[in-house]
């Protein structure tokens, strides 16, 4: 293994010109030429997610990060779908282009540039490329670029229309031409309210042209233009604008119009350039390069692309299990963030990871309120969290009250950020998160007659285990969280509650016949997902290699092969890699994504038996297998440690760039 100091950079040059589709995949591009069983990809910038569709010139969904309102069908909050504002009706010689009258359809996802380009031909009249992006440099902004290559002289009609989802109401649409001296600025907008009236949502667009602007006109609920094109002369225009809500700005309609006006003054190429540069900055500061296995390279980079698409630094937002791809799990925040997605972000994009912590810190008072509601001290974080920070789990689900390890997961994530940065000022600022969660646990445990401690009546990480006592992962995560809190107190010269130490020393983890028990009285039942195995990684509670092997061999066969979520195989891969078994590590690495991949781009589904992509949680686990397994990276109290690592037989080399706060590069050969 080689370590390369800050500043070393390998620049990939596999970049295509915008709007021109690839005829094959490569390490930066995913190519599809079939629309069968199509599952789209999110073009996200961390603030808005725009999901691609196989239908020409339209998108499937727009998801707004951190914006929640009620959903009457389940009685809890749900992340809001926004107005689809980049859709286009395009007619050539008075015949509208539809899904069933095009040929030679293909779609290319450029991961390096955050672009989706759909290409097709229409009769013998034209070839068309349609590229969409959520502008990485401008968080509330997006653009669709249309390129038409006429095969004959044609007449084109292009009209922008907006789709308002059913959950928005009080819809108002308007088209007006603003004027400032000689500048005429046509703006098309839609304003609506969320279902329960909590927020206003507004989207606005305008048209951008190369050269002379066309005269826009309104046709019902659409705005567009007509133009005659000459055979062989390429023609390009764009729909550009933004979507804003009253969660972020006081007047979302005016701000969305400003997004359109800004785009109009900047032009297509400037907006596109800023977007590409912002994506390039991300890849330059955190990337994984696999030589010798193109399929693995694509899938790993696609997982990274999606994680990067679902969050922005300094927004104080977190990531839901489905990111910005859908309303899956109502867009709520779970342990999926802290345990499965956060570790990769911590290693490669610490500022993104910090945003996830800011999200929790901002909701500490609500976590304290929840502890009080249930008669405990300190802070008890909700199993499902929305913008309010209150418990958002459906009332029928036992997880909302009893899956309590989330409180330890949050605490551990905070400590790990400190270990990476060694930033004592930050630790001082966030000390209350560690202290209050520790106080919760010492009020939650019960003392046994022999002086040991137990945690009774919980739902484990293995969610098939309900109303159990001394769940292995719950207890072990509490042990680690308490020990971390003691270390933080000593660093900050804060008083150490003696109960923190007593409980961390005497909280029981049961074993039977040499195997760590999933919970007290466990008799070998099928488990939903990894639980005991998490005690060796990412926790540090079981460190004996023989015990790790025994637990691996036992529980690998107990995980539900049909409905178990994707994460388990990722953590098993890490453990086998650390034990030096590269064959099993690689087998579990492949198992962590392959059964869960959906066409045509390989988006993650939660389980082998489900169709609910994109499951960012599973992507996080697969990436941990690469970084913390094959890559040899380890989180320690002194920061990231770089162990030898291990290379699968199929790979020629593994390079991880941008690791830690000092941007290290690791090469495994």
N-to-C span = 7 Å
Helix content: 25-40%
Biggest sheet details: 9 strands, antiparallel
Q: What is the CATH topology assignment of the domain at 16-282?
A: Beta-galactosidase, Chain A, domain 5
Describe the oligomeric state of these chains in a short phrase.
single chain
Low confidence ranges: 1-23
Work out the number of β strands: 30
CATH architecture of the domain at 16-282: Distorted Sandwich
> Could you tell me the radius of gyration in angstroms?
26 Å
Mean pLDDT: 94
What does this structure look like?
The chain is of the alpha+beta class. Among the domains are: 267 residues, Distorted Sandwich (Beta-galactosidase, Chain A, domain 5); 144 residues, Glycosyltransferase (Alpha/alpha barrel), CATH 1.50.10.10. It contains 15 helices and 30 strands. A 9-stranded antiparallel sheet has the order 2-9-10-11-12-19-16-15-14. Strands 8-7-13-18-17 form a 5-stranded antiparallel sheet, with no helix packed on it. Helix 3 crosses helix 15 and helix 5 packs across helix 8. The longest helix has 21 residues. The protein is globular. The N terminus is likely disordered. Keywords: Hydrolase. InterPro entries: 6-hairpin_glycosidase_sf, 6hp_glycosidase-like_sf, GH65_N, Glyco_hydro_65_M, Glyco_hydro_65_N. It comes from Flavobacterium glycines.
SSE inventory with pairings:
Blueprint: E1 2-4, E2 29-32, E3 42-44, E4 48-52, E5 59-71, E6 76-81, E7 84-92, E8 95-96, E9 103-110, E10 115-122, E11 126-134, E12 141-150, E13 154-163, E14 168-180, E15 183-194, E16 200-209, E17 217-219, E18 222-229, E19 235-245, H1 252-266, H2 268-285, E20 287-291, H3 294-309, H4 335-348, H5 350-361, H6 364-373, H7 399-402, H8 405-421, H9 424-444, E21 446-447, E22 453-454, H10 472-492, H11 498-506, E23 511-512, E24 515-516, H12 545-555, H13 567-578, H14 582-591, E25 597-598, E26 603-604, H15 616-630, E27 633-636, E28 639-642, E29 653-659, E30 664-668
Antiparallel strand pairs: 1-30, 2-9, 3-4, 4-5, 5-6, 7-8, 7-13, 9-10, 10-11, 11-12, 12-19, 13-18, 14-15, 15-16, 16-19, 17-18, 20-29, 21-22, 23-24, 25-26, 27-28, 29-30
Helix pairs in contact: 3-15, 4-5, 4-8, 4-15, 5-8, 8-9, 8-10, 9-10, 10-11, 13-14, 13-15
